[in-house]
Design brief:
globular; about 180 residues; single chain
């Protein structure tokens, strides 16, 4: 039984790797874009700033904040229903940024809001990279609901765990695209 599971897992991994290897030209382009936009620095800054913001947002969120946050999530979900054209992808990415911006606003700390706003250009500059992912919404969307739900419950630890999961998943997908085809 265990051997069958290992063989199935290996077969599935080989199929996925073959599919990914067939996309080498786009992966090469992604790697070049990641170098151009210095993904590592942007992601390091995001991790420091957003992981610091998330607990304070969960702690400080009041009724009005939670309503605005739910509206921002709903806007993101609506934008995620159709992400085929460049304009639709840009709209989705802007809605994604606006959700994160709303989380920063919920801290009620203007310095943290300004720090987060300083990331906007860097984050949105990666739009060209995100456009190359066939499953764009699958990359960034699954954890947004967890983040919003935790903030709505004022659960600082769960909000931090959800944000960490969100950032790790994005980092994993970027690293996967860096290594496939190398």
């Amino acid at each position: 039984m265990m051997t069958d599971m290992v063989n199935t897992r290996e077969l599935a991994l080989n199929i996925l790797l073959q599919i990914e290897k067939e996309k080498v030209p786009s992966h090469m382009a992604i790697r070049q874009m990641l170098e151009k936009y210095n993904w590592t620095e942007i992601q390091q800054a995001r991790r420091v700033i957003e992981m610091g913001i998330i607990k304070l947002a969960a702690h400080n969120a009041n009724r009005e904040d939670k309503i605005r946050l739910r509206n921002a999530l709903q806007k993101l979900d609506e934008a995620g229903k159709k992400v085929e054209t460049d304009a639709e992808i840009n709209a989705y990415l802007n809605a994604d940024y606006e959700l994160h911006e709303e989380i920063a606003r919920i801290t009620h700390n203007t310095i943290l809001m300004e720090l987060h706003a300083s990331l906007r250009e860097g984050i949105l500059s990666l739009a060209e990279v995100w456009k190359r992912f066939a499953n764009l919404v699958d990359i960034v969307n699954p954890t947004h609901g967890k983040i919003v739900d935790a903030i709505a419950r004022n659960d600082e630890e769960e909000a931090a765990a959800a944000m960490d999961e969100h950032l790790r998943y994005m980092e994993y997908r970027i690293e996967l695209n860096r290594t496939i085809g190398s």
